[in-house]
Amino acid sequence: MIDRIVALGRWGLTTMSALGRSGQFLAGVVVGVPRPSIGFPLLVKQLYAVGVLSLAIIIVSGLFIGMVLGLQGYTILSDYGSEAAIGQMIALTLVRELGPVVTALLFAGRAGSALTAEIGLMKATEQLSSMEMMGVDPLRRVVAPRLWAGFIAMPVLAIIFSAVGIWGGMLVGVDWLGVFEGSFWGNMQSSVDFVDDVLNGVIKSVVFGFVCTWIAVYQGYDCVPTSAGISSATTKTVVYSSLAVLALDFVLTAVMFGDF
Amino acid sequence: MDSPAYISLRDVVFSRSGRRVLDGVTLDIPRGKITAIMGPSGTGKTTVLRLIGGQLRPDSGSVSLDGHDVPNLKRGALYKLRENIGMLFQSGALFTDLNVYENVAFPLRVHTSLPEDMIHDIVLMKLEAVGLRGARQLMPSELSGGMTRRVALARSIALDPDLIMYDEPFAGQDPITMGVLVKLIRDLNSSMGLTSVLVSHDVPESLSICHHACIIADGKVIGEGTPDQIRAHPSEQIQQFLRGQPDGPVPFHYPAGPAGADYGLSGEAS
User: Fold this and answer.
1) Model confidence over B26-62: pLDDT tens digits?
2) What are the φ/ψ torsions at residue B214 (nearest 5 degrees)?
C-alpha cells in the first residue's frame, strides 16, 4: 500500500515537473523570437515543411470525409424528405467540428511527429549543443520558427479541409444523388453564420495548432537523445496531441455552443 | 606552468543522476597552449568541457574563463562569451540540412553583418585550412568521419575564437585521419594563437601535441604536468592508463558479490 502511495506521489511530481518544464520552455520560445532578417526565412521554410507538405493528406482526407458526409446525410435526411438540407448539414459539421478536429489529428500524425523526430535527432547528434556553443540559442533558432509555423499553418489547413469537404459533399449530394443545387447552396448560406460557425471553427483550429505544435517541439527538445528516446517522444507527440485535441474540443464546444 | 591561467576550475563538484562525476576537481589551463585532459572513459572529461562552456553548472566550486565566472553569467552574457569559443564535438555535430559551405558560414551569418562576398572568402579560407575547399558543396551525409570533423573544425574557427575545445577528436579515426587531425590542431594553435583544450583518451596523439596534460580518474585530477612529467609520473594508476594495461589499480572486474552465489553453487567459491 505504501509503495503505491509512493509511486503515485512520484508520478505526480514527475508530471508536475514536466508541465513546469514545458511551460518554461514555451515562455522561452514565445519571448525569444529571432530578429526578422533571420527569423522570416526560417519561418517560411518551416511553413513549407509543416503546412505545404501537409496539404496532400489534408485535401485527400477532406474530400473523402465530405463525400462520406454527403452519402450518410442523404441516406438519413431522405427518410424525412429533407435531403435539400444536406448542404447545411455538411457545412455545419465540417466547419464547426470535423474541419478543426480531423485536421488537428492529421497534423499531429504528419507534421507533429516529424517535428519531434527532427528536433530529437538534432539533440541526439549534438546539433543543438553545438548551436549553444556557437552562441546561438536553439530555442530561438530551431524551436520558435517551428512553433509559429504550426500555429499559422493549422487554421489555414483546417479552412482548406472544410472547403474541400464541402466540395466533396456537393459532388456526392448534387452531382451523384441529384439534390437540387440551389437548395444545397441556399440552405447552407442561410444557416451557416460567419461568427458563430466559421469564426468559432477557426478559433478551435488556432488553439489546436498551438497545442499540437507545442507538444511536438517540446517532446523533441526534452527527449532522451537515443533511438528509443526519440521513438518514445514521437509516439507521445501523437498520443498526447490527439487526446489534447479531443478534450479541448469538448471544452471549446461547450463554451462556444453550450449556451442552451 | 609559465603562462597565466586562462581557465581555472576550483574544487568543482558535479553530480548527475545521483552519481558524483567530478569530486573536487581543481585545474588551471594556461593561455595560448594546448592542454590535454585525459583519463578513462566515463570519468567526466567531457563534463569538464561542458562546465567550461557553461552548458552545465557545477554543484559547488568555481569555473572561471578569462576572468568570467562562467556558472553565474546571465544567459545573454554567456552566449556572448561563447562567440569567442569554438568547440569540436565528438560527432562533428554538423547541421544535416546545410551543405559544407553553409555549415562553415553559419556562425558568420548569425553573428556578423559581413557582406556575402566576404563571407564567401572567409569560408573558403577556413575550408582551405582544413584541406576541404573542394568539398564545399557536399552534404554532411556524403562526408567520411574524418572529413566531418575537419568541416566541424573549420566551422569552429570561423569566428577566429580565442579558445577551442576538442571533445575526443581522434576517437574512431584511421591512422591517416588521426595524423591529419593532430597536424591541424597543432598548426591552428600556433598560427592563430589559440588556447586549446583537448579531451581524449588517445594517449600517444594527445601527448605528442600538448604542452600541458592532466589526467582525471574517479572524479579527481590524479596527475598533471608536461607530457614528459606525465610519462614519468610515479602513480601506478597513471602508468596503467598510459600503457593500456588491462588490470591494475583500475581492476579488470567490475565489483561483484561472491561468484558462487551468482552461479547457484553452495561452496566457498568467490
Assistant:
1) 999 998 889 999 888 778 888 999 999 999 999 999 9
2) -140, 140
